[in-house]
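Sample A.
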Amino acid sequence: MTEVATARRSRITPEREAELYGAVLDLLREVGYDALTMDAVAARTRSSKATLYRQWGGKPELVAKAIRHNKPGNIADVDTGTLRGDLQALTSREDDCTMQQNAALMRGLFMAVHANPELLQAFKELLIEPEMAEFHRVVQRAVDRGEVRADCPALDYVVHMLVGAFATRTLIDDRPPTQEFLSSYIDAVVLPALGAPVD
């Protein structure tokens, strides 16, 4: 972390930061990204707009960090000893209700990302790239354990498979993603594609 980022972050407590992120997510669900303003966040959280800009720089960074903060822990920290166990554990970190709320939120944000280069950049730097790196460590452990061949062509598409299942569940089936659906998808699609044990 740079000295500038450290200086900005040091001005706010973790509890206050969590409160602000929660308010941002509430506003996103209520009005969407385009209608969300720093003024609205300041009013909702009884903050000054200057504090928000000093801490986060702008709306794209604030939203991306709020999404990141809302995620249940570090992906790479999940280590059950098997790839199947790791993937199943990752799907069980959020209950079906939370998953449905987050899926609806992300659908709205993906539309905004395509129309807003600054939001896309913030998502890539603060959300997508760190999560891809964490997920790569989970998959690399499976390779190191001998569960997946290092030259398996599906290795480059694991995240695509999982995100695709999550994102298209509503589009194709007109139903929200659930733990049961994702669990069965892992066993039926992801693990066989990788040549990894299913039991």
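Sample B.
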Amino acid sequence: MRRVVRGFWGPRPEPVEAVADRWLRTLDGIAELVPQAADVWSQVHGSGPATAFTADRDALLGALRTAQSATDWSDRTGTGLRLVGTGAAGWQAEVSGLAGGAPEFLLQSLAIILHAPDEAVVPEEALLSLLARVWEPDFGDVSDDDVLDALEDDAGYSVGAPVVGRTGYLSPARAALVPDDLETVREPLPGGGELLSIAAPGDSATVVRVYERLREAGALAPLPRPMDRAVL
């Protein structure tokens, strides 16, 4: 089963060293939470074959600096990096991010895509909590293809808009707009944001219902464009 754990935020200019530190904390967290997902890593490039990658700070810093040396790199867009990890039979992890920039229209992001056996227990909420603590996003979600299809078909969700899935993360200003009677488990996280436990796998209808309530309450309002801050 394919699971997607994502976080999005607006402009947050950071030195490459700070972005590398966030990446390292992310990979270390994945190794702790789902050690079977990635024994070895490779880096995916815009052109040419993937290359072996060592998940340490020096390698991350080097990869990010190499990305910044590309002829089409822009400090406003952010620095992109995509890594793929292979692990036990049936497991694979992909982590891709665009961070450290000050874009006016394109959100910064970090996504963890896990392929796991259907019967496997995956700590989805813990992975989203990890992403929230490390990257301090504006919003985030745990979704799968069925959830995303249901949100697009039944709730008018469009790619790039704030969203929640089976689990959601909302930054402090968004969490303050969550209706008190919303039937979800709300877990405060360091920094003031909240993790929302919304639905079990397969229950896309509940995700759609909660998404619509949050959108009506303003908790999923998009950042104003052009963007001038990282979070709502």
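B remarks: DSSP finds six helices and ten strands in the chain. The mean pLDDT is 94.
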